[in-house]
Design goal:
Blueprint: H1 20-34, H2 39-51, H3 53-59, H4 61-67, E1 80-83, E2 92-96, E3 102-106, E4 113-116, H5 117-134, H6 141-158, H7 186-192, H8 202-211, E5 219-223, E6 235-242, E7 245-253, H9 258-262, H10 273-279, E8 289-291, E9 294-299, H11 317-332, H12 339-347, H13 353-373
Antiparallel strand pairs: 1-4, 2-3, 5-6, 6-7, 7-9, 8-9
Helix pairs in contact: 2-3, 5-6, 5-13, 6-11
């Protein structure tokens, strides 16, 4: 079984260099030892990864975890936190908190693990450079990195700032968040999915029924395909009608982070998802919880990831990246007594450290994508 990853100051483990194809086969063999895999979804994931370098980045955190320690970057040695791991400019979304307010932040902790705090910042900045090259963002890398670091350091010093899109958060209107309209066909698409033949695993059924307002509410189960990095992991959705409208709850199979694969660990229950959800400085989603090996959450038109390409064209990208830096700090503050060490480490770094590391890793992952396509 996996050991709980320790928090300290250390470099991630590196392994001998292998090709992207070998790494993918190795990782997916490990994945099958951790959970039941939907092979058709995994084939779809491979097709997405070939489409463009940004989708490749999103689908191959295992490769990032393997290559980053081997790139000779000074950023690898830094104070460790319970980190997000797979952080990028498409990692953010909205949900309703316990007060019904619309909250915004990181919506995926599948790759949470004890990591140098720099991993999340460099990956976020590298994704910015890749998105820029594809025309999804227009802000220059220097300005984007400055915005990320400013939001990150300010939030560390202030002890955290949950991002709720109401009550004094007018500045976030510049992000275009308020202009995003819930998809009109959300329920139509969900209801179009065929009912699962047989029944989902018993543990998923129990968890989904417990998440409904009434476990005896008439419902049906469907399979759902979503995400990029998690494609291949089982997802089941319970759909029901309640008080005049539809409701839905999803169960997604959890697996340990690819960092556990890199460390040579195998375990069915050893995800850091619950720890990072509970410890982050944020206004949490009351419907999101862990039930055994399943992540349970509410599906609705306003509780969804936000794709960068879906944001209105009129937006302040510096403000957007500043908020992303804030949210990274909100999550890292869940690691007790790390803020002082991180701020001290930040003060000792050269002004260009994040930009230089982002360039190296963006170029590395772009080269990997070309090799993968071939």
């Amino acid at each position: 079984m996996s050991r709980r990853p320790s928090i300290g100051r250390a470099a991630p483990r590196s392994r001998p260099r292998q090709s992207i194809h070998q790494a993918t086969r190795d990782y997916e063999r490990w994945l099958r030892r951790c959970t039941s895999v939907v092979e058709a979804d995994l084939r779809d994931k491979h097709a997405l990864m070939r489409q463009d370098p940004f989708l490749f980045l999103r689908g191959t955190y295992y490769r990032w975890a393997e290559l980053w320690p081997a790139c000779g970057l000074e950023t690898v040695r830094a104070p460790r936190v319970l980190g997000i791991g797979d952080l990028h400019v498409g990692s953010f979304g909205t949900w309703r908190d316990a007060e019904g307010r619309l909250a915004w932040g990181v919506d995926d902790f599948d790759e949470a693990y004890a990591l140098p705090y720099t991993n999340d910042l460099v990956r976020l900045a590298a994704s910015l450079k890749i998105a820029n090259a594809m025309g999804s963002l227009a802000i220059k890398l220097k300005a984007g990195c400055d915005a990320i670091l400013e939001g990150y350091a300010e939030t560390l010093r202030g002890g955290g700032q949950p991002i709720v899109l109401a009550e004094g958060r007018e500045r976030l209107e510049k992000l275009g968040i308020r202009d995003i309209k819930a998809p009109d066909d959300f329920w139509k698409k969900l209801n179009r999915l065929p009912t699962v033949r047989g029944r989902p695993p018993r543990s998923a059924v129990i968890a989904l029924k417990a998440a409904l307002p009434d476990p005896d509410l008439p419902h049906r189960f469907v399979r759902r395909q979503a995400g990029t990095g998690s494609l291949g992991q089982e997802r089941f959705v319970a759909i029901a009608e309640c008080n005049g409208g539809y409701i839905a709850r999803e169960a997604k199979a959890l697996v340990p982070s690819a960092s556990a694969w890199l460390a040579g660990h195998v375990g069915k229950h050893q995800s850091c998802y619950q720890r990072i959800m509970r410890s982050a400085a944020r206004s949490p989603d009351p419907f999101q919880r862990i039930a055994g090996t399943w992540l349970i959450r509410r599906l609705s038109p306003d509780s969804n990831p936000i794709d960068i390409d879906e944001l209105p064209k009129r937006r302040d990208e510096a403000t957007l990246l500043h908020a992303m830096g804030m949210e990274a700090a909100n999550v890292h503050l869940g690691s007790p007594r790390r803020a002082t060490a991180i701020l001290r480490d930040l003060r000792g770094r050269k002004p260009r450290w994040l930009r230089d590391a982002a360039k190296v890793m963006a170029e590395t992952m772009h080269r990997e994508w070309r090799d993968y396509r071939s």
